[in-house]
Structures are given as structure tokens and as C-alpha cells.
Amino acid sequence: MTAQKKITVTDTILRDAHQSLLATRMRTEDMLPICDKLDRVGYWSLEVWGGATFDACVRFLKEDPWERLRQLKAALPNTRLQMLLRGQNLLGYRHYADDVVEAFCAKAADNGIDVFRIFDAMNDVRNLETAIKAVKKTGKHAQGTIAYTTSPVHTVELFVEQGRAMRDMGVDSIAIKDMAGLLTPFATGDLVRALKAEIDLPVFIHSHDTAGVASMCQLKAIENGADHIDTAISSMAWGTSHPGTESMVAALRGTPYDTGLDLELIQEIGLYFYAVRKKYHQFESEFTGVDTRVQVNQVPGGMISNLANQLKEQGALNRMDEVLAEIPRVRKDLGYPPLVTPTSQIVGTQAFFNVLAGERYKTITNEVKLYLQGRYGKAPGIIDAKLQRQAIGGEEIIEVRPADLIKPELDKLRQEIGALARSEEDVLTYAMFPDIGRKFLEEREAGTLQPEVLLAIPDGTATTAASGEGVPTEFVIDVHGETYRVDITGVGVKGEGKRHFFLSIDGMPEEVVFEPLNNFVSGGGSGKRKQASGPGDVSTSMPGNVVDVLVKEGDTVRAGQPVLISEAMKMETEIQAPIAGTVKAVHVAKGDRVTPGDLLIEIEA
User: What is the pTM of this model?
Assistant: First the structure.
């Protein structure tokens, strides 16, 4: 071993650890009580923001993510706060105009972010430049990031070339982001050694332990010159998360690489999160442990946790193995993009559609179409030409930086959200997620924000979350072809064999009474909607929500023309007319929940 300065550590417990294990559901109220101890450990930084946390705060937890950041900054005055930023995508699923990127970076810095880990899902450095400049303008730490992956086109030389390009853009450090746990120990050593030989900047290692080798990778990285490692408190470590903080601190103690961190204090923090993790047990899946199949399917830790949760909601968790097998095939067709947000969602959702439909690319999501057109940047490898023609037809393929085609949009966003936005931060929340962001701000204005409620039913009885004993449960129930999302939010009195529950059914609060039914007889009904049966009947192959209806009664349509846009698993899909003709009837509206087989639109030849 070569003597060097101590290794510094970033702990991911407040962001990536629970994103990878608990579908990003940890609440601010479970973070703040332990912040005093976290602040005394001596971490180089704590990762607290970015990735899916912003989305989950607004969509599920009904927390203002900006307020979370401000509270954490106040509670952690001695520790750098770090975020993950998706380059030109920021925290959303599309590219934004440069003025939005600049405004977002400025506000994130104002509200407490000290370190910006900036990456692009395609490793297209053109998509990093605006964010890097914006962060440097704030005086904060800009970290250029290599999204590590393996494929016939990804080589050490290619990654070093990317590192040089980011250095020339002015980054303060380089991170190797191994989001899927694909690094192996000796490959890690080779890559770190090559980067350190060419680039005089600190090198950070971020590796998920999905394949069970991440701690060995970190050790080889350290031996070859890496300066910094990312870890997770042991009670939320390993598997699809990261190597345990305590384990790595112990492994390096008494060596030239000693982190100098207080192992006993970290162990106390671990016990705290051991209890917290139990509270969110409903969001854990069987797919968060060590699984060497990641070396083939390349599914990142955060993606597999959320994919399992989404498949469960769709009633298709039993098809996970088929989806995992389809993912590398879709990835090859798309030119081997790294699987990291948003490309992980793009590839994963398309793989699911392929499996569910029983036919590859029978349905192509809008995001795949945009990807194949070049709207996300340049693909690392060669795209399947037949698929590209099928998806985009005669539309032009984009060769320039995608954001060069986007006009300034911040003023337009301000006008769209109007008085619902009390601050520039609210405008940016709306920009990241227009539909759920607007809904969040509307509910805040009306005073009706209601988070998911955690409820445990260990023995057939229930306790409210307010009692401090239980945790929230959500169900997706199919009744006569109709799918309902049911959230149990509390329990009332029990008497005469009956129990009153307070439920939210598809977002509508209800008080219902359950009682034993000794003689249940199936009603044989067909649900609220008719089922599609004719040649001109438009339906969907996947449960989801209607994003937009593109036609109205009396319109003339051609076969294959988009008539409806639906959203499932955060991806949008165009539903097309099966025949040419006239729209006879439209049975859905924007925001409606739809299920496979529903008659959505009738077309008459």
C-alpha cells in the first residue's frame, strides 16, 4: 500500500439508501431527530436530495422538498449537504431550457446544497455543461460524474475521455457512479488508476452492492488512488444499497487510509435507522438483496426497488423475471445507454410493455420515441435502425445538444402556475413535475395535503399512525374489471362485530364499515365501463391514468393515429386508433384511471 491522506466519506442514508431499499419513502420527520448525531460524525458530506426524493416528496409524502432541504440544512450546520442532479434533466424526466437549469441550481444552492453531483444518463457531456457552469457561478462544489456501465462500446479509454472533458468544463472532482453494482474489484482498480494518471482531481466512488462486491471495489479503488467513498449506515446498507459505513470505517481503521470517523457514534445512528426501517416495511420488496443477476440485467438498486413496487401495483409482480430478462435486450436495441434515471425508467418500462403485450414493441412509450429521435442526447452505441424507423417514422433525427432546441421557458412556467406559486421554488417544483406539482400546490392552497399513511396490521387488527405503533398500507384492488387504489388512513371504533375504517379510495376520503359476510354471492357485474370488443374500440394494455384525450366526438381519424395518452410507471404512452373512421364516442377524460380491456373511445368505420 502507498501512504496517502485519509479517505473521506459521504453517507447516503438520507437519500440513496432509502431510495434503493424503501422506494424513497422516508419522511423528513424520521430524519430530523438523528441529525445532531449525523452532524457530529465528521462526514465529508451527507447526500440528502435529488434523485427520486423530490418526486416522492411531492407525489406520495406531500412534503415540500425545498422545506425538507432547509430543515436539514438547519439541523446539519457542520456537514456539507450533497445532491444528485441529472444534468440538463435536473430532477425531471425531460431536458429543460438553460434558464430553468440555471435557476434551479441557484435556488438549490440558496436553500442548502453544497455539493452537486452532476451526471447525464447518456454520458453525453454536452448535457452537463450548463449545470456545471451554473453551480460554479454559485461558488459551490461541482462534481462531474461518470455513469458506469458495461457494454461492447464502454471502455476505460472512453470513460477517461469523458473525465478529461468534464475537467475542462471546470469540475472540482470526478465521481464514478456505479448505480447498478456492475463494477468488479479489478475493473475498479484499472479505471481509477487510469483516471488518476490523466486527471489531477479527487476521484469519488459510488457503488451499489447489488452483486455483493462493492466493498471490495471500494478497497481496490482506494489502493489505486481514489480519495473518497460513498457508504450507507449498516441498517440500510448492502444489497441494492451501498457498503455499510461501519464496515468500511472498521476496515480502514489503523491503516494509511483511516477515515478518522467515530465508529461508536455511527453504530448508535445505525440502531436508530434499524427502528426506522421497520416503519417502512411495506415498501421493501424481495428484490433488494444481493443478486448477481445484475451483472447481466444491469438494473440499478433504486430502479429495482421502485420497479418491484410499480409491478406490484400493476398486479404483475410475478412477471419480474421476464422483465429483467427483457431489459438487456431493449438496452441493446437502444444503443447501450447506461441504466440510470431517466434511461433506466425508459428501458425498464419499455421492457415491461414488451413482456405484458406478449409482442416486442407492439406499444412504444413516448419516452422511447424521444430517445430514438435524439432528444436525450447521443446514444453510446448503434441504435437498431428498424426500431428507430418504426418509432419515429420520417421525423428528423437530432444531432445537436437537445437543449439547443428548447427556447427559454421559465417565464412561461411562471405564467402557467400563476398564483399557486408562492415562491420561485414553487415554480421550479411545477417545472420538475407539472401534473403532480400542480396538484401538490393546489392541495397546499386548499389545505388538503394528505400524505400516505403508514399502517401496520400485524395480527388482523389495526393501529393508527398517530399512535406511534403502526405504519401506512396501500392496496390496489380489482373489482369486476375496475382497479381501485385504497389507502387505509385510520381506524375507528369496533362494535357489534363491525369495524369502521377511514379509507382514501382513488384519492377520495371515505368512512366505511367492514363486517363479516357469511353468504357472499358474486354479482357478475361488469364494472363502470363497457369492455372493448369491436374493431374500432380503443382500449389500453396496461393500467394507468389518462394524461390527455387527443380527439373528440365527430373527429375523423386514420388508423394508427394517436387518440389518447396514458401514463403508467411514470412513462407516457400514445394509444392509437385501431381503424380509420369517425369518433363515435369518448368515454374518458384527463385524469381518469383506466384498466386493460376498458372501452375508452369508439371509432366507427
Answer: 0.78
